[in-house]
Amino acid sequence: MSLIVLGTASHVGKSVTVAALCRALYRRGIPVAPFKSQNMSLNSYVTADGSEIGIAQAFQAFAAGIEPAADMNPILLKPKGDAVSQVVLLGRPYKDVQIRDYYTETDMLLAEAVSAFERLRRRYGHVVVEGAGGAAEVNLYDRDIANIRLARALRLPIVLVADIERGGVFAQVYGTLALLPEDIRPLVVGVIVNKFRGDAGLFASGVAKLEELTGVRVLGVVPYADIPLPSEDSLSIADKGHRTAGRPVRIAVVRLPRISNFTDFELLEQYASVDYVPPGRPLADYDCIILPGTKNTVEDLAVLDRAGTGEELRLARERGVPIIGICGGYQMLGNRIVDSGIESEVHADYRGFGLLDVVTAFTGYHKTTVQVRRRATGPGPILERVGEVDGYEIHMGETERGDLPAAFAGEGAATPDGLVFGTYMHGLFQNPGAANALLAYLSERRGVPFEPMTAAPGGGGNGIVAAYDDLARHFEEHVDMNAIMEYFVDATGQRAGA
């Protein structure tokens, strides 16, 4: 059987709950797959066959011990600005749409999502489904293919997750249940109260009151846990500052308006002070500056230009500070960006920051999505230590390197001293070799010791195996797993996979 995890709002912990359930079932020998019909996120992942899905579903798949696949997130919306999103359907770019026009295709998209779910259920037997945002968005019920319409199509048991850290948990749960459609409300079989700080036992009277008010069982009160898991979307950036402050090596990641795949830097966050710095803020006190990926290179470049970031980068270059561009950030570091109307909807030629002698052209609605393994071949004290790394590319446009050395075999570009380089490779600094190379050099310049990591935390599974085991144990300690397991047995009462 399967289960749906809905939330009282965005960022209450639905993704983490699904990951915890997937890992807990995997540890019991029960095959399971994650599923989110529609995701809106600029943090994405490329599967082995080149499909693009939300990064949360990829890491949920790793938690379940399986390879990510397009069916796990059949509809991915990637906002480009001005109420326009790119629609990625079953892992491939479908089209750019105004949100008001997107809703005209709701029936078709729901049918695609249900078909994807059924393929997963046939393959794995069990699926843990994640909703999106808040479940009780009453103005969207007629077109809510991530929550209400999906729940109506699948008719699965629902667990509702609420975030007590925000306050108002009684109103969250009671209000959400009260506003659910009459045919959906009876499907809710339990509530999980998430992100409790302190002794969860102190909330026993609160549990009793919630059950009295709603008539729905509270399956658990899960304490807040600072387990290093990948971030799903930009809401997570606000949570980061307190985790990395105070470390001697300081890295600035420019917080682009349409920043994408900032999970690229979450391994660095465990060893350095990584600040996500808004455009216009000074960059003088940082040991390294990273321009990350973006969903719209041209528009974010214009924002940085107006904010004076170009001058900050040039001054940093004069000070010998390493400057690294990933994907869209790589494109911005070049001399020019030639857009035939793909990024900005007008034909135009834009001046880049000129720190790399490269030119990028957007000439067609084609997206490169591929997993890669490359050896660093560029010069300088960072790239020469990197070695071979894994990653993935997700980008529009192609970049001509000219006479500069490649940063990696056949890809990217670097200055002759190697202190400025760019690459299309997402996930670069999730490789311990690359993270060690950067952090060791920055520590040497700072005159502080650095103990190289021997493997990404946990090892294997993109470095998160141990983290997901920790998450599953934490979840099982505080949630009534016996109650949840009722929904993962077959008709004879035998545990699935037994």
Describe this structure in words.
The protein has 498 residues and is of the alpha/beta class. It has two domains: 3-229 and 464-488, Rossmann fold (3-Layer(aba) Sandwich), CATH 3.40.50; 237-446, Class I glutamine amidotransferase (GATase) domain (Rossmann fold, 3-Layer(aba) Sandwich). It is built from 15 helices and 26 strands. Strand 11 (188-196), helix 7 and strand 12 (218-223) form a beta-alpha-beta unit. The longest helix is centred in the first third of the chain and has 19 residues, at 106-124. The radius of gyration is 23 Å and the shape is globular. Residues 4-225 form the CobQ/CobB/MinD/ParA nucleotide binding domain.
Assigned CATH superfamily of the largest domain: P-loop containing nucleotide triphosphate hydrolases
Mean pLDDT: 88
- Spatial arrangement of strands, main beta sheet: 2-9-1-10-11-12
Strand content: 25-35%
Kindly report how far apart the N and C termini lie. 14 Å
CATH topology name of the largest domain: Rossmann fold
CATH class of the largest domain: Alpha Beta
> Which second-level CATH architecture of the largest domain applies?
3-Layer(aba) Sandwich
How can the largest sheet be summarized?
6 strands, parallel
Judging from the principal axes of the Cα atoms, what is the shape?
globular
Identify low-pLDDT runs: 457-462, 491-498
Helix content: 25-40%
User: By helix and strand content, what is the structural category?
Assistant: alpha/beta
Protein name: Probable cobyric acid synthase
GO biological process, one term: cobalamin biosynthetic process
Keywords: Cobalamin biosynthesis, Glutamine amidotransferase
Pathway: Cofactor biosynthesis; adenosylcobalamin biosynthesis
